[in-house]
Amino acid sequence: MDMLLVLLKNIILSTLHGWVGASLAVFMFFRPLKPWRIGRVRIWQGVIPAQQARIAEAVSGVVSSELLTPQALFDYLVREQALERRVQSTMHDLMASVAGNEYPSVESMFPPSAAGLKEELKTRAKEALVRWTVKYLTDPGVEDWLRDFLHRQLKRLWQKKMGELWPEERAEAALRRFLEDVAVYVSGPDFRGAALRLIGQAHGALCGQAVPLRDVLPQPLRDEVAEWPARLAQVLPELIMRLQNSEEVLERLTAVILDIMEQLKRKDPMARLSIGLFQFFSEYQTEVKDFVRNDMFPRLGEFLSSPEMRKWLEQYIREQADAIWDRPVGELASGLDAEQLAQASDWLAGRLSGWLAGAGAQAWLGEFLLGRYRAMAGYTVAELCGRYGGTAPGKVETSLARYGLDLLRQHVTVRFLRLAARSLVDEVANYPVGRLRDRFSPETLEKVEVMSAGMITTYMKNKIPSFLEELDLKTIVRARIESYSTHELVDMFQRVTMNSLQKIEIYGAVIGAVMGVFFGLANLRADAFWFIAALLAFVIGLLRFVK
In this predicted structure, what is the pLDDT of residue 546? Predict the structure, then answer.
């Protein structure tokens, strides 16, 4: 019984000794975080906190030289196609998100964080378009290109007939619309104002002319005017006979004669006496009216109808007309005062507007234009150029190229194109996009996705070797470990080795228990001491050899 009690005491004490020793070893491996000191003398600090720099150096060396070498990273990213799979997956998710979003404009496709990039892209696009426009217009080869372009475009046009390019139905419809627009325009205030300005300008130009009126009028009109004196000489007697039946004219002539008689009475006593006697002894108003109707008009008609009077009247009218024809145009035009000119201008503008808007003028103009179209419909464009322009198609192409290039290279055109290029970028930026999946087919979106993924993968594969060469993993890992606080470093090791540390404590207790058995046996039997000591020495040597 005493032997078992001694053996049990040794086992318990050795087990506690083994467990406490292992726990103390584990504790000293991590704790204390800060060194214990007595004055300036450093007593102890945990192994891990004390060796942080050496641990960082060792771990970084192992990671950079054995675990994550540049070649290993390159093989994983490129040869095992990890990069390509990742890029394809990312592009697929990105395209699905982009294609499903609603975009009110092109610039709204940029996220708010890329506002600066958006404005920079717009600015650079405007500058690039302006530079391209100016460079294109000033390129020496643009003239040849423009000539070749016009030749290719006009080559088939020259052989087309006018009737093929513009069928008669379309021509009639266009002419109707044109005539309707003309009628509306000439009936409006704009045409009237333009006509008044034109008449005013024509009057101003005529005032400076010293040419006789006879030389200004065309010969057919002069021949027509030359017949007017004879016609007027024939018309005047007939006009007098027709006026005889007009009561209004008779009353006015009667009133004029009576007024003349009253004026004579006031001027001469003898006339007053004789006229007074005539008025007293007769109904003078009735007699004057009968005289005008039955005596004055017939006598005046007979007088004007006589050959001598007609000849004299014709000669007189011709002399007056010749005097007018010989007067300078400027003198006749200057003789009109402002009121007369305004009345004449208003009358001419009204008559011109009414004539152009009238059915007769519209019908005549329509028939004339349609007739000209039908006359040209059977000719080719090349024949029309030669018939009406007297030029060959080649000369037309050369002239168009030269004048077109001169027009394009004008400062005003260049400035306009610059403004157009800048505004084009703004228009594109504000263009309503909507959803991309509604505007493009799934096949198109898939092609864009594959193309984008391929371009990004190829670019990154070309950049990975140089990137890996410049990548200093050792420095990165060492800096990362050194940046840990001692508490964080210890926590990291404890998280990794927690189970192993607990096993060490258990193993210490087990070893202590075994040693307790050995110590108990050695105390009970003196002859077993040397055997147990030799066995322990052998085990220790074996462990060191294996290590």
Answer: 63
